[in-house]
Design brief:
By secondary structure, this protein is an alpha/beta fold. 50% of the residues lie in helices and 15% in strands. It has 17 helices and 12 strands. Helix 1 packs antiparallel against helix 5 (138-146), helix 1 (24-53) runs antiparallel to helix 7 and helix 7 (185-207) runs antiparallel to helix 8 (213-229).
Length: 514
């Protein structure tokens, strides 16, 4: 007679391996590390692509979408393959191949951008998708290795899922707050690739031997060597930009600050009154026409660039106090080092966000606010809104003036919207630019480039402004009154709740200067 027994204990699931020597700590470490690596690749990819695609909402959206696609694809395929193949055979190759691709990414992307720009989006997507999918496959593979009983399914899956999420958080925070501020983009990716290949070697040693790892290590070394000769290098990789300082062969003291492939500032270290870029000559023309000659001013600058205009004010208006809000501390170091022997007297440069800097200023404390902040190829959207411009108006005194440099192309939708927004805040607004861009000449379609907007609660002497523009041979005209109203048309107001700046901007060649 067969004895009656109680409910049987859950048995090891048929066909499920018993762990292959992979302990719970090793499993957690693999999931944590691979999840962190995916986010490191995503964040660094944004910085790597910025010199070629711009640091815009579209670029960020594209990179995030590709990374999420990689995570979804890797999780699905990793789990599916792990059910059909011994999972222990998959871990090493997943880590090693992803490491090789990551290490090669800087050289591949920069070479593609210079020699085959039409292929850049495809190659960029591949360099994010491939390692992202391989690394995301690690979690379901490790989960399969750790599942030895149906009774522990929830515990194993839940714990590893949580560990993976914590790893992703760590990768995001560590990259944003530590790696990017201390290492170049190339160093981060080559270092990560090296760690992944080393992890692959350890896993292979624990499970199957050293199969394939030496070859992958050679790929990582090749990636490092290729990066040193790849085009598109930077003098300095700051937190936000790939920065270069280019000497002007035509002027001994001439220096051009190039950020992400775009000429942002020109500084003559011997003569701060020399203004190379047309839009800077326009800014100077407006200020010199509105304020008495030589009168010192209290100025606030949203964006520093090469400190060209603060240096001009210090030279032409002794006693001027300029406070500069420049978000990129790396650019500040270039300003005070390579582009000049420190800041001239009266210029205080702060590494801070421009809008946060505005909030710290007292009401009515400034004669002049200059807007010249750019992220990638556009004005940071939060500096363009009714709310931001209301704060600009608050810090200006009753006779104060706001002048801002704008860049737009095509039908100038963003520039029109910004002019409309300024008209909502200030009593008087004028726009300065090439006559064809302002609709003052009908001989050709607008091409765009730089425009300057001027806003104040006092009347501006436009005749004096035009005479100053002509004296500096800018070729620019002033749009006001009915001409300005017609030019603005039905452009929308920009607010903190609705400011599609990146969508309004017309794409243009990133090789063009400002």
């Amino acid at each position: 007679m067969t004895p009656v027994t109680g409910p049987s204990s859950p048995s090891v699931a048929e066909g499920v391996p018993r762990g292959h020597g992979l302990g719970s700590r090793a499993a957690a470490l693999l999931v944590f590390g691979s999840s962190a690596a995916v986010l490191v690749v995503e964040i660094v990819a944004l910085r790597l692509l910025a010199p070629y695609l711009g640091l815009t909402l579209e670029t960020s959206t594209m990179v995030i979408s590709i990374a999420l696609t990689a995570i979804a694809l890797g999780s699905w395929l990793g789990g599916r393959v792990a059910d059909q193949v011994d999972p222990s055979r998959l871990l090493g190759p997943s880590l090693g191949l992803s490491g090789a691709v990551v290490a090669l990414t800087p050289a591949v992307l920069r070479t593609t951008a210079e020699w085959a720009p039409a292929m850049l989006l495809l190659i960029a997507a591949s360099t994010i998708l491939v390692p992202g999918a391989l690394l995301s496959a690690v979690t379901p593979i490790v989960t399969k290795l750790r599942l030895t009983s149906l009774a522990e399914t929830g515990t194993v899956v839940g714990r590893l899922s949580g560990v993976g999420t914590v790893g992703a958080i760590f990768g995001t925070v560590f990259t944003g707050f530590v790696l990017v501020s201390r290492l170049s983009v190339s160093s981060i990716l080559i270092g990560l690739g090296t760690l992944l290949v080393a992890g692959s070697a350890l896993v292979e040693w624990r499970t199957r031997g050293w199969s394939g790892t030496p070859a992958l290590a050679l790929v990582v070394v090749a990636g490092g060597l290729a990066t040193t000769v790849a085009p598109g290098g930077c003098d300095t990789e700051t937190r936000y930009h790939c920065a270069r300082v280019v000497a002007d062969p035509g002027r001994d003291g001439g220096r051009t600050l190039v950020l992400d492939g775009v000429r942002h500032s020109y500084v003559d270290t011997d003569d701060p009154t020399h203004l190379e870029f047309t839009y800077v000559r326009v800014l100077a023309s407006v200020v010199d026409a509105v304020f008495p000659e030589g009168e010192p001013l209290a100025a606030h600058h949203l964006g520093g660039g090469g400190l060209t205009f603060p240096r001009y004010l210090a030279a032409t208006r002794p006693g001027t106090r300029s406070l500069v809000s420049e978000i990129d501390s790396g650019v500040v170091r270039l300003d005070l080092g390579t582009l000049g022997p420190g800041a001239p007297s009266g210029i205080d440069v702060r590494a801070e966000d421009g809008r946060l800097g505005l909030r710290r200023l007292d009401t009515g404390s400034r004669d002049l606010v200059v807007g010249d902040a750019f992220g990638g190829v556009s004005v940071p959207w939060h500096l363009t809104t009714v709310e931001a411009l209301t704060d600009v108006r608050r810090v200006l005194d009753k006779e104060g003036l706001y002048v801002a440099n704008l860049i737009d192309h095509g039908d100038l939708a963003f520039a029109r919207a910004e002019a409309a927004t300024l008209g909502e805040v200030f009593d008087h607004v004028v726009v300065l630019g090439e006559p064809v861009d302002l609709g003052l000449e009908r001989t050709a379609a607008p091409d765009g480039g730089n425009l300057v907007v001027v806003a104040s609660d006092r009347t501006v002497d436009l005749r004096a402004v035009q005479e100053a523009l002509d004296a500096r041979q800018t070729g620019w005209k002033v749009a006001t009154g009915d001409d300005l109203t017609s030019w603005i048309g039905d452009a929308p107001l920009l607010t903190d709740d609705y400011a599609p700046v990146d969508q309004l901007l017309e794409p243009h060649s990133r090789r063009s200067g400002r």
